[in-house]
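With this grant's support, we have settled on a layout for protein records. An illustrative entry appears below exactly as we store it:
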Amino acid sequence: MTHQSPRKNPYSLLSWLLIFSIPAFWSVNYLVARRAPALISPHALAFARWAMAALLLSVFAWPELKAKRRLIWAERWHALALGMLGMWICGAWVYIAARTTAANNIALIYALSPMFIALGAALFLKEHLRKRQWMGVVLALVGLVHVVIQGRWNAIASIEFFAGDLWVMGCAIAWALYSVLLKRWPTSFSPLARLVLIASAGALFTLPLALIEAASGLPFTQTVWNWQTAGLVLAAAVFPSSGAYLAYGVLQKRIGAARTALVLYLGPLYAAALAWFVLGEPLHIYHAIGALIILPGIFLASQSKPGLPPARE
């Protein structure tokens, strides 16, 4: 009689480090989005950040890409689809939406992404969350809403919705599709090399759109290229693009798409901390209360029963 040892717990120290570092990388995009409108157009920023991210990451991924160059063409359609979803829609559309809707609306609608991802993971990846984990998802969502509405729950009834909210809803759906397909589609490449391929495809997809945007002559589609613009592009390429997307792909492979999506709920907390540190914006009691709700929610959602397999790879 053979004895089967239980599979290793996917929540290693590395997994927890990734859980808390991914929203830190992504929060830089909040600062970029606030500075960008007066300097760079939405599609120009999306193209520039992903082209630079692909270039930076390719320095480290080049040996693998060269060794597996014959396999790149076989994954071209997957890379293009993921680039369209994750780099074009989730890149440029948020910047477009920010011109016609409130930041609170963006945060509230984007909070639907983990729910969409959990449903998609259950349908297509066979990742089923248990009751305790769903309790954690709901608890984290409540904490995020508390931060977004600044603790004023009576303000929910007075929230207005605008045309830009449709752009944000498109982003939330696109991110759910990106997350599920990233896990569902097999690949011959490491997360680093695969991200280079996806980022390159995303940059190629957004380039003609950026050129059309610039040729339109509309005020918000014009770009002023200077050192400040270059700094915004570099910051977006290094942190929310290279750092966050690479870490997200690695974490998703370790713990699954549904539970990885919960890092989105930490975003507003990190953004508030970064705004306080960089811009001098004050922190408030609702940030602390939100953190006290979100963190236990993420802990509950991460729990697995002993002996059960982790998310499928």
